Each structure stands twice: as C-alpha cells, then as structure tokens.
Amino acid sequence: MIPRYLVDFSLDKLPRVQTDVIVIGAGIAGLFTAIRASERHNVLMITKKSLLDSNTRYAQGGIAAVISDEDSPEYHRQDTLIAGAGLCDSDAVDVLVHEGPEGVQDLIQMGTQFDIENGEFALTKEGAHSQRRILHAHGDATGAEIVRALSERTKLSKQIQIWDDHIVLDLITYENECKGVLVQKPDGSRLFVQANATILCTGGTGQLYRYTTNPDIATGDGIAMAYRAGAVIRDMEFIQFHPTSLCYPGAPRFLISEALRGEGAVLRNIRGERFMEKVHPMLELAPRDVVARAIVREMELTKSTFVYIDITHESAEMVRHRFPNIYEYCLTYGLDLTSDWIPVAPAAHYMMGGIRTDLNGQTSIERLYACGEVSSTGVHGANRLASNSLSEAIVFGRRIVEHIASLSEQNQTFDLAESSHRPEGPMQAIVEKRLKLQKIMLRYVGLVRNGRGLEKGIEELKRQLSVFESCLTKREEIEFANLLTCALLASESALIREESRGGHYREDFPEKDDLIWRKHVLIQRDHGFTEERIHD
Q: Cβ contacts of residue 375 below 8 Å, gap of 6+?
C-alpha cells in the first residue's frame, strides 16, 4: 500500500513560509510559468538541483508551431491527432495549435534566439509532421538556448525567489484543496510552504529505465506526489521510446535527434540495408513508436544490439552547421557524423500520460496545477508528435497563470492530523533497488509487452513496497519511492489496456481496438482504476 505521505510530520511543529505561487521544477514549463506568474504574484521556485538541470536542457530538435505561410493550424492539428492514435483531446489540440505561435513570440521576447536563415526562422521537419514547422536554436541545442534565456530572465525578477537543492516531499491538501507543500532543505530540516496556488512542473519518468535520454533527475516526483494526494492520473501505459539514442561502448544513451531524419538521414541494419521501406510509407519519418519497434525487430532479426543512422550522403558542411552539438559529442567517442554511420538503439524518452488536467492546467485537486511532461492535458494522446512538448509547456503555462489570477485568497486555517509508525534508520542498498526496478521495467514494461510479463513485473515491483515503511531521508531514497510508485502505475495501466496503440504495444493484443479501447485509463489513490470515454 502506498501511503498518503512519504514521511512523518506535524504541521504545527514545522516552520512556515508564505508565498503566492509555488512552482516546482525548472524546465521550460517551470521557468516560463514562473516568469509569467511573477508579473502579478510573488513566486517561489523549488528545484532538486538547479535552474540548469532539466529535461528541457537536453532537448535538441526544437519547438513545433505554425510560423510558415505554407503551414496552418489545421495541418498541425491533423498531424497531432494522427500521431496520438485516437486518444488526443481535440479541444486541447486546438488550444495548442492556435496558441502555440503566440507562445513562441513570448519565448523570443524573453530572450530566446532561434536560428534564422535568409531573414526568416529556419524551420525543419520531424517524424509525422506534414510541414516544416520546427523552430530550432544553435542547430541542435534548442533546449539549452531556451533554458539559458529563461533562467537569466528568472534570476533578474525581484518577484521570483529560487530555492535550489530543495526536495518537495509531498503536497499538503485539505478537503480536496492544495494548501502548499512539505519541503526538505539541503541540511535535512523540513518546513511547510503555504501558497494560493501550486504548480507541478517536475518533468517525466525516464529513470524508470536503465537506458534513457533523460537526466538523472527525471524520477516521476510530481506524478507520484499527486497520486499520493489523490489527484487523477491518466494514461500511464503510454511511454515513448525515442528510436535513435547513441548505442556505443562507454557512451551514455545520448539523444541523436529526430531532426537528422528530418534532414534526410536514413536507418540501416548492421548489413547496411535500409528497412523502413517495408514498414511505413513515411519511411524514417513515421511516428516514433513505429520507428522504435521497427528498429527492435531489425535488431532481433540481425542478432544485433543496434542499427545505424546514416547522414553521410549530405555535405559535411551542412551536417556540422545543422548539428554541431551531436557532431561534437559523437566525435569525442571517435565517431564522425559526416563520414560514419552512427550506432543507435531506442531509449526511454517521454511520458505521454501523467496528472490529468483541464484546459487551464488545473488538476482534480483545487489550486493544484500541472504543466509540461508531468501533466496529461490530452494533447499527446497515445503517442506524442515530435516537438509538441515544448509548445505544450508554454501554451498551458500561459493558461495556468491566467486561471490563477482569478483565484480568491484561500483560507489559511485548517486542521491536518497525520501520523504513522515508520521505524528509525535509513533504507539500505538504494542503488541496487533502483537498478532492479529499472531491469524489471525494461524486461516487462518496455517497447513490447504481454500480459504474463506485466503480471510478473507487477509482482516483483510489489515486493519492493516495504520501502514505504522505511524512514526516508536522503534524496535518492525519496526518488526511489517516487519511481516505484510510477512503475506500478505504468505497469498496472499497461496490464489493463488489452490492445496496442501508440507507445503501448501488447504482443498478445497486437491490434488497435477502437470499439473497446478508445478511452483513457484513469487511476486515483482511493478509487483505483476507472475508464474515461473519448468524446469527439
């Protein structure tokens, strides 16, 4: 049983801090939302590490928005709906495609410098996009440029206070209203931060898997704490594996951007043969789930641990100019992007599900909002369209701030009695526990799943539930508890969905079944699993 709170505490005995808005996380969602909120409110930003540590920083491809006269919101809408495999919320998609361009202008106004060619924005194309609509920066360092600009702007604001190296343990709720958060300081002491609104911008769950493009901070904290607080969690079975991460001895699973394929790169098996022609009419630019599974099948057929991505037919000058970051990184391992085929394999990349929100980013708990990868707005459906995630963060960040402005001041007086009986003493062997969890997820809840494997995985994960009976004090212990929570939510959701769709593939139910499964899988701590029909 997952408890309501990770640690024992008494609010009456904790120091209290008061602010208007709490923002947890420092990716594009957290930074952008904090900046916009600071125009009217005092904002406290809380990060596990620093403003420069987030998934956004590693985003290479770019941000999708209708900029070109040859493009249109309707084209963007159709591409998003097709990639989402029938599970997108059409209203949420409409919000994204129509408000995205204005959000991009906000980023530019905040200092982001996107690449320009011949006096216009340089636009590229990625998988499942019908038009060139991806803005990028410094070739393949879009996320780093956005983080640079927004973090500089954040530090200049007198209305934003930043707490680095602080851990948010749990959300404090009373009568389905979020009152604030329980925070652990770097010295291990704790305090209660009370606010009129709390915004979760904590990113995804990449560290559920041993092979991931995500940094080590992506441990599902926001989803786990929202689940413990009773929020509705949706579609946790849909996990996107990026088809092409570097797979080379001694090298981390570094992302090899989809933009390479957008600029003409092709995939080859270890025999040098292209294989996407026999898989999908869009070839290497098919939706990510299709490409990732095709790569795995090819690896199995050729008894290899990787395939190659090849852009050597393009000019060396173009490759170095367009992908300087990837070029330099590969070169450190003796791989020349301009002349070598680069070995790649799929790796965990993005969580399509998360905390269910409405079109204003509000969760099922009043005064609690979610933005970015931690949220389930309905935009991504079963499979995120490439580069829609950065757009989603700014579009819904703007909406959250507008909604917060309409909130009345909440009652600061409430009674909260919490007690449990956790033994003293730290949990042992956390590194081994985390590695075991990652191995379970890779084996049973990876790119290809089946019912027997999912049941086995859930059984093994439940054996680790004793962690919640321990005295959790260190960051890695708290992160493991959050990862375990997300692992169980994803595994149990995957077992329930007896079909294959988008990022969820069941070899025992290999076909998509719209008649039965065109619906969302919801889970709530005190109510278990329910289903939500899609309404066109």
A: 200, 354, 355, 356, 357, 361, 396
- Tell me the backbone φ, ψ of residue 487, rounded to 5 degrees: -60, -45
Ordered per-residue pLDDT tens for the chain, 536 residues: 899 999 999 998 999 999 999 999 999 999 999 999 999 999 999 999 988 778 787 777 799 999 999 999 999 999 999 999 999 999 999 999 999 999 999 999 999 999 999 999 999 888 789 999 999 999 888 999 999 999 999 999 999 999 999 999 999 999 999 999 999 999 999 999 999 999 999 999 999 999 999 989 999 999 999 999 999 999 999 999 999 999 999 998 899 988 899 899 999 999 999 999 999 999 998 888 889 999 999 999 999 999 999 999 999 999 999 999 999 999 999 999 999 999 999 999 999 999 999 999 999 999 999 999 999 999 999 999 989 999 999 999 999 999 999 998 887 777 776 655 566 555 568 889 999 999 999 999 999 999 999 999 999 999 999 999 888 889 999 999 999 999 999 999 999 999 999 999 999 999 999 999 999 999 999 999 999 988 76
The SS3 of residue 411 is coil
Question: What count of residues does the chain have?
Answer: 536
Task: Compute CA distances 291 → 285, 351, 502, whole Å.
Answer: 8, 17, 11
- Of these residues, 288, 367, 398, 525, which one is catalytic? 288
Tell me the DSSP string of 341-371. Answer: PEEEEEEEEEES-EEE--TTSB-SSBTEEE-
Intra-chain end-to-end CA distance of the chain, in Å: 37
Query: Distance of CA 71 to CAs 92, 133, 204, 288, Å?
Result: 19, 7, 30, 22
Say how many CA atoms lie within 13 Å of 77 toward its Cβ.
13
* 497 is annotated as an active-site residue: no
- Which domains can be identified in the chain, with CATH numbers? 242-348 (3.90.700.10), 430-533 (1.20.58.100)
Helix (H) or strand (E) holding 310: strand 307-310
H/E/C letters for each residue in 471-518? Answer: CCCCHHHHHHHHHHHHHHHHHHHHHHCCCCECCECECCECCCCHHHHC
Cα dihedral value 171, 206, 510, 82, nearest 10:
80
